[in-house]
Specification:
six-stranded mixed sheet, alpha+beta, 30% helix, Deoxyribonuclease I, Chain A, seven-stranded mixed sheet, 304 residues, single chain, disordered N terminus
């Protein structure tokens, strides 16, 4: 029988050498195609889920005491799991309760409006797995914004705003600003002056970064000068710009039956370039009990 093993070995060697030469070329070609694919079809940007929520300050008054409402709020917030929440009316002890209920993945930033223990705050909660704060401040809504507790515009109560500059850990470290506030419930003059001050502060933020504004503005969207002032600060109403939205309800209900197509006094505004996928008003309740006298407003965004 003829010995063909030499031929077989030589053929195998030539094949292996050819494959070894071709493989780097193929790998480079594949890398080029992959790079071109990434350029033409970039990886989708992660969505950022934002909420604004007037918590209704903790009290012992029944039937809507904080002790009764807290379990319902815990269920709502855990189910929603927003990445950032602009809250209003939270008392210090109440904010600690919420942090405990959301732990271990949430922290908050905020100061009392009068600088006393247990005072109301406009705290900003955030998911620490997604966001890292790189700067923040709280200022009074008055002619003396650096004077804690100051109230110069005739508001029924001192009012404040808190802003935070965040780094988005899931979006390549992209940074953005969020400002959260609660305007006066009694004085329209105080509301308009506060809106003007907030617009000035937002204008001082880095214009290359996205900006979000959350709050209870005690003013109806589309029907109040406050709304016009803030939209004039190069912001848009995420409810209006959303690709999809839930049914509209008045965002303040006072523990009464919900009002379809009612006034939105709680808003999420955003700078140009922010894409709004969905806006919603969350009507969650349990056993007929709402966690607050306001409904939380939510927006799912992609930062521009």
């Amino acid at each position: 029988m003829p010995d063909s093993s030499g031929v077989t070995r030589r053929t195998g060697l030539r094949t292996a050498v050819a494959a070894a030469i071709a493989m780097p070329l193929l790998t480079r070609a594949q890398a080029s195609v992959a790079s071109a694919t990434r350029r033409t079809h970039p990886r989708p940007r992660p969505r950022l889920d934002v909420m604004t929520y007037n918590l209704r300050y903790a009290s012992t008054v029944e039937p809507n005491s904080w002790a009764v409402r807290r379990p319902v709020m815990r269920e709502l917030l855990r189910g929603a799991s927003p990445h950032v929440i602009g809250t209003q009316e939270g008392l210090f002890r109440q904010l600690l309760d919420i942090e405990s209920d959301l732990a271990p993945h949430y922290a908050w930033i905020g100061s009392g409006r009068e600088g006393v223990s247990g005072d109301e705050s406009v705290a900003v909660f955030y998911d620490t797995r997604r966001l890292a704060p790189v700067g923040h401040d709280t200022f009074q809504l008055s002619d003396t914004p650096r004077v804690t507790g100051s109230n110069t515009w005739g508001a029924a109560l001192p009012r404040i705003a808190t802003w935070v500059r965040f780094r988005d850990l899931a979006d390549g470290g992209r940074e953005f600003h969020i400002l959260n506030t609660h305007l006066d419930h009694a004085s329209q003059y105080a509301r308009t002056r506060a809106a003007s001050l907030i617009a000035e502060r937002i204008a001082e933020f880095d214009p290359s970064l996205p900006r979000l504004l959350t709050g209870d503005f005690n003013a109806a969207a589309h029907r109040n000068e406050v709304y016009d002032i803030l939209l004039g600060a190069e912001l848009a109403d995420t409810w209006d710009t959303a690709a999809a939205r839930s049914r509209l309800y008045a965002t303040f209900h006072g523990y009464a039956p919900l009002t379809p197509d009612g006034d939105r006094i709680d808003w999420i505004l955003a700078s140009p370039g922010v894409k709004v996928h969905r806006a919603s008003i969350d009507t969650f309740s349990r056993y007929g009990r709402f966690p607050s006298d306001h409904l939380p407003v939510r927006a799912s965004l992609t930062l521009g």
